[in-house]
Amino acid sequence: MDASALIASLQDAVPGAQFEAASSVDLQTTIYAARKAVPDVARALRDRPDLAFTFLAELTAVDFWPTEPRFEVVYILVSLVHRARIRVKVRLNADDARVATVSGVWPAANWLEREVWDLFGIEFDGHPDPRRLLMPDEWEGHPLRKDYPVQVKLPARVSEPTQLTEDEFRANLLRDRFVRRERQP
Questions:
Q1: Dihedral of CA 159/164/168/170: which sign?
Q2: Alpha carbon distance 31, 6 (integer Å)
Q3: Radius of gyration of the chain (CA)
Q4: CA distances (Å), 132 to each of 99, 112, 144, 162, in order?
Q5: Which residues of the chain have pLDDT under 70?
Q6: What integer pLDDT is reported at residue 162 of this predicted model?
Q7: Phi/psi of residue 90, each to 5°?
């Protein structure tokens, strides 16, 4: 399915929504959709017989900091019936990085949206369980943002293979086992 046919079908299904064809290095059909139209676009992509994109293969994000719009949320969808695959992107500004959840349309989006929120800080309005998924609850910030402060400042080290005799190796194993036994409750 080419981008112009996809856009024509979606404009018929979601009147007034704005779409834009996007270039792609891998030649996968890619379009941009407006943020406010995401729930209606998702339902049209899934429910229209001429589209039937019933499988959400991936949902991720990209940070283009320091440019605006800073973020893109990327949905990769598959139509098993039509043997087609498309990419839908939604642009988001840094000061309002939020989009409606599609977890009611594709249940697989639930954990993928949690992952995007956890790592990029993009909020999914209406998400049923907006908790951290990968990072600990007390973690501050979102580590895949390009402006995330990297706090590790270690000098570069050169590693050399450790040369041990067979007896030294066995002694290290025994010492390690002994330490582990003492730590167990």
A1: positive
A2: 8
A3: 23
A4: 17, 11, 14, 40
A5: 151-162, 178-185
A6: 67
A7: -130, 125
The string of pLDDT tens digits covering residues 6-57 is 999 999 999 999 999 999 889 899 999 999 999 999 999 999 999 999 999 9
Residue 163: Cβ-neighbour burial (10 angstroms; 0-12, 13-18, 19+): exposed
pLDDT of residue 120: 97
Rounded Cα distance between 31 and 44, Å, is: 14
Tokens linked to 118: 């956890």
pLDDT value at residue 156: 60
3 in Cβ contact with 30 (< 8 Å): yes
Token pair for 89: 């992107």
Helices (runs of H) and strands (runs of E) counted in the chain = 4, 7
Domains and CATH numbers, the chain: 3-150 (3.30.460.80)
* Number of neighbours of residue 96 by Cβ within 10 angstroms: 10
Strand order through the sheet with 84-92: 19-22, 29-33, 84-92, 71-79, 55-63
Cα dihedral 134, 140, 146, 150, rounded to 10, equals -100
pLDDT at residue 150, rounded to an integer? 72
